[in-house]
Amino acid sequence: MLHEYYISARETSAVVEKDLFGIVRLTGPERVSWLQGMVTNDVQKLSSGNGCYAGHLNPQGKMVAHMEILKDDDSLWLVVERASIAHLLSAFDKLLIMEDVQVAELSDAMSILGLIGPQSKSVLEAWLGQPLNLDSLYTHRVVGEARVIVTDLGFDVWVPRESTDRSLRALAQSGATAIDHGAWDVLRTEAGLPLFGVDIDETTTMPELGDRGISYDKGCYIGQEVVAKVKYIGHVNRRFVGLVMEGEDLPQAKSAIRKADKEVGYVTTSLFSPGLNKSIALGFVARTAYAPGTAVEVANGAKTISAVIVDLPFSKQ
């Protein structure tokens, strides 16, 4: 079914339950000023109905969690992989001293439904019975019991957990094809979007993922000195990249990437891309090999796979 699911996501509309992600809500009068000192992007610049991508780092500049941050009139909402929520909440608990900020996890109370594909906007409008009036990335609004957000892959819809099945059926009746997590994984990999616990972890720094999610103009935040140092030096020692591979073999996660018989990185995700009709991978590669067009080899048991480093997302290829 993967091919059919993929075609739906690329040509019409597809819907998937994004159960790998959870929701954290921040309330209280000091929520914005407090979170401003906790994350890499500029939360204070956000107006209600807008959002941004950011990371929360430890003092050594390593990743605790990355997230989407959404702002409305009385709350800040964080969309975070469930794999990192416990660690993030523990860090927040230690960093909240006297500030009037309340933190609540709502992952079990809400479901996140992702819509992908060129017809997803019209599907949502048919389901909601009104225009979306959302255009730019991370803009969002509440319609009835649902919150709709513009995302990197299309749209997310938050609904109460008890409304999940009903909402999925209604979206399908409006024209969306339900797809599984495997199809969604292909789509997010082609888009070059890393998953915490799969592609990135507590050893990752934000600059290794690029400048997305980093404000170099805002005030101090935890881990800022490390991020600023990378900016001053002008390069990272390793980078998150894409690889286009020859043949149909797929290397396992953590398989070594080599250049001229020297290990220069490792694979985090590998799969077949229907869009490119090739095997592709995500991974980290050292500065000596991360320039686009660099030829490398990927270990695959006793064999090797020839590959080329490419920019992300793969749609650029």
What does this structure look like?
This protein is α+β, with helices and mostly antiparallel strands and 317 residues long. Helices cover 22% and strands 34% of the residues. It is built from 7 helices and 17 strands. The chain has helices at residues 2-11, 31-36, 82-95, 120-128, 164-173, 181-190, 224-233, and strands at residues 14-17, 21-27, 51-57, 63-71, 76-81, 102-105, 110-116, 140-143, 146-150, 154-160, 177-178, 238-245, 256-259, 262-273, 278-286, 295-300, 303-310. α1 packs across α6. It starts with a helix and ends in a 7-residue tail after the last strand. The mean pLDDT is 97.
Which ranges are low-confidence, i.e. pLDDT below 50, for 5 or more consecutive residues?
none
| Average pLDDT figure | 97
| Largest sheet entry | 6 strands, mixed
Strand segment count = 17
Order of strands across the main sheet? 8-9-10-7-1-11
SSE-based structural type? alpha+beta
List keywords for this structure.
6-stranded antiparallel barrel; globular; 6-stranded mixed β-sheet; single chain; 22% helix
Brief characterization of the structure:
The protein is α+β, with helices and mostly antiparallel strands. The protein has helices spanning 2-11, 31-36, 82-95, 120-128, 164-173, 181-190, 224-233, and strands at 14-17, 21-27, 51-57, 63-71, 76-81, 102-105, 110-116, 140-143, 146-150, 154-160, 177-178, 238-245, 256-259, 262-273, 278-286, 295-300, 303-310.
